[in-house]
């Protein structure tokens, strides 16, 4: 069944790619907004029989996100789901975090969700239907050093979600958050490898989280079954953080 188009930001790699693949299997055509080439995601989506469109988009740019919404409408038609997954997570102490770095992290992680909502919510309001899933992180509820800008940005994502949900409920649009725990992606490896040894042991389900462990939550939040769930945060971290 065709469910319309789902937009996934940062869907060229990592967790976003897994969201795109799952939403395609669920029956959505997929549009990926990413700074990087999304051809691997294209192959995965097209293998499900769904249509795919991607463009080089910087989610922290008002012009780039607005242009993307026009391009998606032209290529794939109405957007029914928006997953604001693009994010960056530089491991920097507070002392090492200068204002430029702070603004960059806010620009992608928080402004990006705002700008993509600005670009796609008007169409959802017009059609009186939509699903928005923003991506935070379970680190927001945990003791994680060297991530001040990141954790602040993800706190902003939760606040933005709650506020936007309050405004859009009357228009048939839900807005929720998935907050993953430490997940096995290429970008997460390299800088702080030791966390993969000790963090999973603190989870109720004590193994490393794979992108595929997260996709069911996003699938539910984009589905008809979640029609009365809005403003909420679902932590998918194997049961470490509790809210
Ligand atoms: N991996 C984890 O352990 C983990 C844990 C909790 C939350 N998250 C969140 O999940 C999301 C995805 O994480 P990931 O590990 O898959 O990351 P990743 O680095 O593997 O993928 C992120 C994608 O976003 C794209 N991107 C970055 N800046 C962009 C911009 N300005 N405009 C458009 N695209 C941009 C990148 O090109 C990349 O393809 C992020 O929001 C991250 O904060 C990840």
Automatic annotation (TrEMBL):
Q: Which UniProt keywords apply?
A: Oxidoreductase
Among InterPro entries, the record links this protein to:
NAD(P)-bd_dom_sf (IPR036291), SDR_fam (IPR002347)
Keyword ATP-binding appears in the UniProt entry: no
Q: Which domain of life is it from?
A: Bacteria
Q: What are the TM regions of this chain, as residue ranges?
A: none
Q: Which family does it belong to?
A: Belongs to the short-chain dehydrogenases/reductases (SDR) family.
* Protein's recorded name: SDR family oxidoreductase
């Amino acid at each position: 069944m065709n469910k319309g188009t789902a937009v996934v930001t940062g869907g060229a790699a990592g967790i976003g790619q897994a969201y795109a693949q799952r939403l395609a299997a669920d029956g959505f055509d997929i549009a990926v907004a990413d700074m990087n080439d999304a051809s691997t995601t294209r192959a995965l989506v097209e293998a499900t029989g769904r249509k795919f469109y991607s463009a080089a988009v910087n989610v922290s740019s008002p012009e780039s996100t607005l242009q993307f919404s026009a391009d998606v409408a032209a290529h794939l038609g109405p957007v029914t789901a928006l997953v604001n997954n693009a994010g960056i997570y530089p491991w920097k102490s507070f002392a090492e975090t200068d204002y430029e770095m702070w603004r960059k992290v806010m620009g992608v992680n928080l402004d990006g969700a705002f700008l993509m909502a600005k670009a796609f919510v008007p169409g959802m309001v017009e059609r009186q239907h939509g699903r928005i899933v923003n991506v935070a992180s379970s680190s927001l509820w945990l003791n994680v050093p060297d991530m001040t800008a990141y954790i602040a940005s993800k706190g902003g994502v939760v606040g933005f979600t709650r506020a936007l949900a309050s405004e859009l409920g009357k228009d048939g649009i839900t807005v929720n958050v998935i907050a993953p725990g430490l997940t096995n992606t290429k970008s997460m490896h390299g800088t702080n490898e030791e966390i993969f040894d000790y963090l999973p042991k603190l989870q109720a389900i004590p193994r490393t989280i794979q992108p595929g462990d997260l996709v069911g939550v996003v699938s539910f939040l984009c589905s008809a079954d979640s029609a009365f769930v809005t403003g909420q945060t679902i932590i998918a971290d194997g049961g470490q953080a509790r809210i």
